[in-house]
Amino acid sequence: MSNVLKIILQRLLLGLLTLFVVSVVIFAAVNMLPGDFAEVILGQGATPDAVAAIRRDLGLDQPLVLRYFHWLGGAVQGDLGTSFAQANFASFVGEGAAKGATVMQQIAPRFENTMFLAGVTALIAVPFAVGLGILAALYRNTAFDKGANVFALSSISSPEFFLAYVLILFLAVLNPILPSLSNIYDGMGLGERIEKTLLPALTLTLVVTAHMMRMTRAAIINLLASPYIEMARLKGMKPMHVIVRHALPNALAPIINVIALNLAYLITGVVVVEVVFVYPGIGQLFVDAVKNRDIPVVQACCLIFAAAYILLNLLADILSILSNPRLRHPK
Amino acid sequence: MINWIWAVIVLAVLFGLAFVFRAAGAAATGNKPYFRDMPFAVAFGYVFAAAAIAGGVWLWFVPGAVFFRWAVQFFVAAAIAAFIFRLAGRKVGTEATKKAFRHMPLTASFGLLTILIYALISVFAGLLAPYGQSEVVGAVNLLPGGDVANGGDPAHPLGTDQIGRDLLSRLLYGAQNTVGIAFATTCLAFFLGGSFGFLAATIGGWFDNILSRIVDVLMAIPSLIFALLLMTIASAWAGSQQWQLTLYMIVIIAVIDSTRVFRLARAVGQNIVVMDYIEAAKLRGEGLPYLIFKEILPNATAPLLAEFGLRFCFVFLTIAALSFLGVGIQPPLADWGTMVRDLAQFINFAAFSPLAAALPLMAAGAIALLTVAVNFVVDWMLQRSSGLKE
Is residue B200 a contact partner of residue B273, using CB atoms and an 8 Å limit? Predict the structure, then answer.
């Protein structure tokens, strides 16, 4: 057991290190921008004195390395700075009590919404994809398998917004089954919230299903030539039973891996889908911030996305180690 | 809610029919093993397929289901075109191409045909398009269809956009801009990733270590997010120079995607570098350029070519997504991602004017069609080169 713990601890440390380096990259990239916070806040009427005052106030006159650790320290404690769009001049020269909305206040509710969307998507997509993959492996090289393959290839290679608009066209405009706008607000009932989330979730499901399904199918088919599968078949087991009881547990490592990787991919896909459905999530906030060049928000969203991505990749790593009995029970 | 109840009822009926189908089959054939041992899922599959076909035929005659008829017509036309193209490929050309066409699945020949058509349109867009891409030619927001009574104009078969530019021309020019820019970006990504990957494989040591760690870090940030972050900075640098922003975008996406190419090129290169003929070339005293271009590159073409197709799809989709979000290819260049965003509102008029609602889908579908086509071809190439038959 200590062996596994050691490997997991190693991976965790590696993940933390990656996150640290990524935060350095994000910080460095943002600091390549011409001008700084003070100049942007003051806009046209910036006098050198005022600029210097704000810089001193925010610590922008300190060296880059110090500022980086200040930012990182804040980020770890949940303080991601103040948004450009929400900030105003008075809040900086004032006593600090009346500061504009912080990035954290903007992000927190939206982060929850995005997690909700991702959760609903995962709940639909994972069973659907794994089930479809098992069926495709069971009926391999039949019309069903080929149809599923073409469907998977087509949906994996379509842009998210194409799938989104096709779904809107058929499920919202021509047959008004689901709402095409996902205006989520506080205090909404769970049923209504799910109904409004369903269309974006279905779009994301189409995007991520294909890869998971193909991987499940490939992982199972890879095992079908093994002697123990042949033994199970010769015993007279039903084909479905052979696959679910004998092949699936051994194919679990690559399947879990690809599920975690696809959930990580969801994070990227969420951006476009949220914009299409006007879903008030973190992706939409990010795109708006990119358009308005609202640097603190861009920086914070980027860090959150990267952290989630790294975390899920790490999870994929650890789960595939844990699902390998040879590693769990060393001789 | 009522829809869900209906769905459950239909599903239950199908389950029942599957039982009946299996029992009836067994009874009619005198208990043949095929029906007797048929798993329930297979019986359900047959019934479901029959129901789907029946539903399709019924839908064909429903007056409101215009999109379904269009989709079926497009699908059939594509299948016939692919079939004819494959037939022609078997008869015309050199022995090698004839042989390739002989074992080609229909999906791959459809992919090849589509890529060919896109390439022709993107090269000759200037000749094919009736108007210029940023030329304001007619009244604003003319509806497609060319029917004067319905608010159209025969001179503009697909209508005009919100500032009066001909949409057909913009769709055709979109092939030139979107596909052209994506192709250029992929080439740049391959040049960067390929050369550094091969260099890392041949030189090895500290050079390899440093490059690999840099690539690891760059790959730890999701690519679309990283691209959006860098585009923010690029837009501040470019200022009001719109064409500069497009140029920055090419470089940014090429660099981000070159990390993936680097991984593959390095892995493939490392397998080749340990071969005897490389050793021989080194002993002959050949230099680094000779080793890379004359020894490694020719032996790495097959995996790199497949990767080029897939990479092109990813780059193409990233650019389309960026343009759709409004930070990619900048106006006045016509581009599909931007067109989808600008025309998206028309979808709400699907019940009144199906053709108008199809406009954003045409632009988005143009993107989807090309990536699907490339994926089909790559899938076939990989299957052929690996000799996988399953």
Answer: no
